[in-house]
């Protein structure tokens, strides 16, 4: 059965405050990286799926929207590559 | 001054246990996604940098290795795109 590697990218929606990103930004400013702005911290989830491509894509779409992200606060997208 | 959008991808090294990934994997198995394996949870950090491309690239290399990741336990890579 074919095997696929997937990457799911989960980021906070632009309107949601990101205290972790703000903290990183302030730390960088103190380290003389004052030209860095707009730091946002998101998640990268890697997974392996077995099955036919069409089924795996539908499954990944569902997992991304329903399990790996909170659609109220987060945007999510995925990439699939044959292993 | 040119402005760049950077994405930094931080993932645990393959030899490091990932309890968060294991938990997601078990949750997916209970939700009838038993064909999913090897779940690993990493970080995606987005930032904006101002400056010349060569300087920004050197700066991003340094920030990625010294601030945004722990090279003992994590792998990190970055992508840069003109804003």
Name the features.
ATP-binding (chains A, B); alpha+beta; 2 helices; homodimer; 3 strands; elongated; Phosphoribosylformylglycinamidine synthase subunit PurS (chains A, B); three-stranded antiparallel beta sheet; 34% helix; 83 residues; Mth169, Chain: A
Q: How would you summarize what this structure contains?
A:
Chain A is an alpha+beta fold. Helix content of chain A is 34%, strand content 41%. Chain A has a single domain, classed as Mth169, Chain: A (2-Layer Sandwich).
Output the CATH homologous superfamily of chain A: Phosphoribosylformylglycinamidine synthase subunit PurS
Order of helices and strands of chain A: EHEHE
Number of domains of chain A: 1
Which architecture of chain A would the CATH scheme give at its second level? 2-Layer Sandwich
Largest interface: A-B, 32 and 32 residues
Tell me the number of helical segments of chain A per DSSP (H or I, 4 or more residues long).
2
Largest sheet of chain A: 3 strands, antiparallel
Keywords (chains A, B): ATP-binding, Cytoplasm, Ligase, Nucleotide-binding, Purine biosynthesis
EC number (chains A, B): 6.3.5.3
GO biological process, one term (chains A, B): 'de novo' IMP biosynthetic process
GO molecular function (chains A, B): ATP binding; phosphoribosylformylglycinamidine synthase activity
């Amino acid at each position: 059965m074919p095997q696929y590697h997937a990457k799911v990218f989960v980021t906070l929606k632009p309107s949601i405050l990101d205290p972790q990103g703000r903290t990183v930004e302030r730390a960088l400013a103190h380290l003389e990286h004052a030209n860095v702005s707009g730091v946002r911290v998101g998640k990268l989830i890697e997974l392996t799926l077995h099955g036919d491509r069409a089924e795996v894509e539908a499954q990944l779409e569902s997992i991304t929207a329903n399990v790996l992200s909170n659609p109220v606060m987060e945007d999510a997208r995925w990439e699939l590559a044959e292993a």
